[in-house]
Amino acid sequence: MNPKIKNQNTDELFRAILTLKNIEECYAFFDDLCTVPEIKAMAQRYAVAKMLHEGEIYNEIVSTTGASTATISRVNRALNYGSDGYVLTIDRLKAMEGE
Question: Three-class SS of residue 15?
């Protein structure tokens, strides 16, 4: 857990997210909470994380996602030195999909 973001407001936001039950509810909540560019940026970073986790190279990730090399580097740093949030969710989704 990153102590820089830990506070009562963040806890409440995360509790709210945990109440969402399906993709449609997520779309509604995040549409209200975030701007379209913010949602697209988060989705792009997650796509980059999945591709890096699968061993894809930067050039292919740039081509597929349109992400900058700076974004790819930032996500790569998080994968290697972060809190393991990307890996946790990527692995859980794979398990749910039966891969």
Answer: helix
Collect all residues with Cβ–Cβ distance below 8 Å to 57 and sequence separation of at least 6: none
Which pLDDT tens digit goes with each residue over 15-66?
999 999 999 999 999 999 999 999 999 999 999 999 999 999 999 999 999 9
CA atoms within 13 A on the CB side of 3: 0
Cβ burial of 52 (10 Å; 0-12, 13-18, 19+) is buried
Question: Which residue matches tokens 């379209």?
Answer: 36
Contact 67, 48 (CB under 8 A): yes
Token pair listed for 49: 């994380």
| Contact between residue 29 and residue 16 where contact means Cβ atoms under 8 Å apart | yes
Neighbouring C-beta atoms of residue 46, cutoff 10 Å: 15
Task: Provide the whole-model pTM.
Answer: 0.91
Tally Cβ neighbours within 10 Å of residue 91.
13
